[in-house]
């Protein structure tokens, strides 16, 4: 009846992209409320023990903390739009530069973990769902639950204690000291994302060094999401295997393997894609712990450092960046979803 | 017996119930409508005490909405419903709820109509509880009485049961018990038997007849099944797409159906009489989308007796051509398709349809071929002119007539085949007929969306300039692009928004009839958007990591 | 042989049946025990013939259709014989019977929307089916066949590349029919194909099913609860009650002159345009985990005799063709002495119903 | 009473296969930890911050022995006792936070889903934003703020955990409300004249909260992990205030290199076990409650040979 209801793919994408603005606005407002309004006076919290009252007041004035809240709110929004997150209290660095220098490491870690989780989780989930209530299903589910249940730092701890040694893998940092030094010296840090820079440099020693450093943290973080993927894929397979169109395909005599692949697996992965966006958020959260455990020079590690310093400006800036990243990822996921599932567009 | 009396108990005047359609996620966020569905569109109906009025129609006919509107469950957009002289629209929420003691409802799916977490006693008793009967023992007495009345005996077996322990027929009895326990005078029965098994339907129908007899009820019987309506109803209103198309005494409707839709329904009922022949002249197609109903008479695209003035339009042309193609071979189809091109744009209803992509002459030849195949199609009479435009033709249809309900013999019919018969028995009733509504308004060129798009587009295009006036000035004075390390994100986003608005104006602006000058506005807004985008991103391009020092302290605190 | 001739001959019932079911049983496992959904059913279906299978919900008619197709849930069992093209489907290896599906045995379902994969275009559905059973065809040939089938169902070729959700309810059911018929199976099961549709669309679909014989020479098992549809679209009818076919024969014969009391009561309780008074069958269908002894209808039967409660009725020839199982019809010689006495039945309360 | 018991046993009696075993295993594991939590003072040989007994100082980072089953750590604390006391902290925090979540999230979801409109839209947007945000980061930020205000107490951590889980309860309850309010029985309730409050309380509530136990247990598992994560970062409860597994693991990290394995292994295993137990319960419940996942226990079908006539 509603054949060409209201929309096409471009229209859907446009709508979805426009929806980003209010989403970001809401999230910025939340960040502002939580970090600027709630705590009261960040300056004295951070520097109260280092500066006298007059100096504190000067800092407050300079940062605009003496302005009315509404003005501060407007200033905050404007500064975010200009990608200006201010300067950290504790070490006087431009927050944007902190993000630039450390964001790359976080990005490479999460992406590597994500790839590992996908490569391991999705096939295992498919097998478990297809052969429900068999021995492989039980084992895979147990693996999934355990890999989710084991805290990142505990897995990291076990890996560091029992795996790193025998395999000769480093347990700390994103690269060896030489790699970092020579990359910097030779001006090879073009993108500020080490993983990309070493590949751009083409030097196999650097590449090996960086990949070795990446291995354990990425596996640790990947395992966390892997359990989630297994569960998700399995449940969706179970549901699509029961769906009417699968039975209808069987009734048409489509070969069982084709039914499984084309009807059950493919359809089961669609909702999975939607949830992947949310899993990325989980990854970013997990990255904080992974980075701390492995001394990975990423944003999460920095964030924890600044939190311990009570550096509100830095925390606010980093949190804002994370927030915007999450919103953007969710939009990308939605658009990908619309490309795959024709029903979404309408 | 005094009833059915002539005393009206419910009086529905010009009732319309419109729903806003949900749009996309953005529209949902803003709360704007993506269009309206006229579920009920200007209906007049009087219920007399003690009679059974049938509302019959297919899905989307608005029969259920009309039934729900009687209880105030569907808010009236226009018009009034008077129950015993009280207008439902005037009642406050509390008084309206109190009124529901007097008008009750029975639902189609008895399994869904009962709360799965309530026992039979709680479910039936809750009707009393919400109307303030606090004492549990008093309630129990009344519940037992009601359950006995609907035949659920021995009552003790049923009181503690949950709906899942009951059969379909038993559940429907519980629903009936809940409906009669407050002592209503009107019962709206929305397809009460259609979800039940064949052998139970007659039982429930019998029960409803008994209840009517015992309690003096007035029924509104909503159904798609003409057979049960024929048996059960005193009067029948045939509904189609939110309108009553024929209304009158049951015998007359069945003995002498007048509206083509009524005739079609009667022909289509499967009948267990083995001597009956399968009907050959069924209406084609399906109930159209209520969000944009056909022009003129809503039934004309499916009608076997349609006339040239029934409201022909572009979508009918598409159906005609596609129907033609189902009878062509693959090669013929491929050839003709290349002449006509894509037909999707015909889905936007208009009386001037442009088709053809391979030249006007070819398109005319094609149309002639279609016509030769089925020369009797009434749509041909509805075409005013076929003019050459560009590489195709523009088919201009006649303005259609939207027929109003008019008296025809003992019934009233809304069909151009039955023009007015002013001297009716109930002249007073026909006086209150709706005047024929004005033809579908050809849009004045401006609608809310167009204006909204323009405003939003202009703001999005200009705001970044205004908000950053200081920056742009600075930028000119310094004359050095690279002195700014900040990306003007607002500019980029504003540009995108403005471009989107402009594009939407360009393609969809100005309502149904696209005035060229809205296209101009669209172009301007879109261009502004592009400009804004370039402005925002030119700063982006100029960013160089080595020169990222901040030059300006006035806007970078 | 021309289609017209085969059509004429099918009405003669003289040809070899396409499908021939003998004493088929299909039982389900539940938490309470086995449900005897189909319990000893036999019927024949001639080429191009349509057999209507009617009965109340829960009488096992859908299960029978699925059992023939082999689409049964876990824990269900079936036995008996189903002869199709000289082979017994039920004793085949699963692999072989799977191969028959689609190409030889087709199925049309009740809710067409959920039966189509929402992520696949209509064209993909057709390609997949045709390719599976005829791998030698080229892409163009496949498209040709699919478009031909669609055209017969009145779906324009412009819609070939659309997605299922872009069609209306009636169109989707036409799609399902086209998809079942594009492989030209000789036997199709249609399970309540019109239940979810509007009155006028239902009539359109019934018409299409009625035309099947002419267009495809396909035998059809039409499962429905609507006796009206049977009267309009079927050659023969089988009335099912509590897992058994109690009466079958030519539609006109059975409906004009029902031999089994259940058939008669079912017809009488149906509300049609000619209804002048309401009739109904008292009581509810039995629990199929533990069905009553003897004739399963005897607790509700207005004419039950003593023998009905103790011995299974014998399946015998109806006076005017077809078969019926009821002691009222016979055979006289198998009724024990005193068996014809009227059975004293338990009182059925009004609310004891389905 | 029997009815209640039967209703509680329903998940067991109705299902079969792995779902049943998961449920049983999960409940047993969880029960053990709950017992540890309740009877920690009786079960643990020493206090959680006890460095000496009867005047005798415990060894520093001593290996497992008869006196100290799991050894002692660098602060001279008994690892076994801290592991048991840790269960108490974990369960306290999780129960408190679930309570807050349910009390806030369920009514909010019910009202927002039932009334819709602007209130619903704005709340949904805020909750979605919170939900989309990396929950662990959010927990960090909240505990960072709350510990400034409330100190590193159980309440502060429970509150910050609640803040990240409320959106989940809200969303689930809201979405089920939105679909449940379209159900005919709600329309029927309106048709008999029930007010909005009555509809929400008597008709919607029971049908909407059914999904809460599943989210509750799964969230409890996640909350344990988050709590431990916070402790690991030193943002949660301090080790002298209560025993907290995550914090202990953090301190154990530096031991890993020196061959002291017992300080890290046991708290880590405790976390893994408890989270596994809760997840098993949650997933088991899900497979019994969710009709699309449920496998009913079927009696096998035996077809008797045909009776000859």
Shape label of chain C: globular
Point out poorly predicted stretches of chain B: 423-445, 467-487, 539-557
Unreliable sequence segments of chain C: 1-13
The coarse overall form of chain B would be globular
Query: How many domains of chain B, as an integer?
Result: 3
CATH architecture of the largest domain in chain B: 3-Layer(aba) Sandwich
What is the alpha-carbon Rg of chain C in Å?
21 Å
| Secondary structure tally, helices of chain B | 20
The CATH class assignment of the largest domain in chain B is Alpha Beta
- Tell how many strands the DSSP assignment of chain C holds: 12
Transmembrane segments (chain A): 12-35, 105-126, 138-159, 214-233, 268-289, 313-340
Protein name (chain A): ABC transporter permease
GO biological process, one term (chain A): transmembrane transport
InterPro entries (chain A): BPD_transp_1_N (IPR045621), MetI-like (IPR000515), MetI-like_sf (IPR035906)
Protein traits:
heterotetramer; B: Rossmann fold; 3 domains; eight-stranded mixed beta sheet; 20 helices; disordered C terminus; D: mainly alpha; MetI-like fold; 2 strands; 1% strand; membrane (chain B); ABC_transporter-like_ATP-bd (chain B)
Concise structural overview:
In chain A, helix 1 (9-37) packs across helix 4 and helix 13 (299-308) packs antiparallel against helix 14.
Description of the structure:
The complex is a heterotetramer of chains A (346), B (557), C (354) and D (309). Chain A has a domain at 95-171 and 219-345: MetI-like (MetI-like fold, Orthogonal Bundle). Chain A is 77% helix and 0% strand. Chain A has 14 helices and no strands. In chain A, helix 1 (9-37) packs across helix 4 (69-81). The longest helix of chain A has 39 residues, at 256-294. Chain C has a domain at 117-177. Chain C is 30% helix and 20% strand. Chain C has 10 helices and 12 strands. Chain C has helices spanning 3-12, 61-69, 94-100, 122-133, 139-152, 169-181, 199-216, 227-233, 251-256, 261-269, and strands spanning 19-29, 34-45, 50-54, 77-84, 87-88, 105-108, 187-191, 219-224, 236-241, 244-250, 315-317, 323-325. In chain C, strand 7, helix 7 (199-216) and strand 8 form a beta-alpha-beta unit. Chain C is globular. Chain D is mainly α. A two-stranded antiparallel sheet of chain D has the order 1-2. Chain D is globular, with a radius of gyration of 24 Å. Classes of the chains: A mainly alpha (346), B alpha/beta (557), C alpha/beta (354), D mainly alpha (309). Chains B and C meet through helix 8, helix 9, helix 10, helix 12 and helix 13 of B and helix 5, helix 6, helix 7, helix 8 and helix 9 of C.
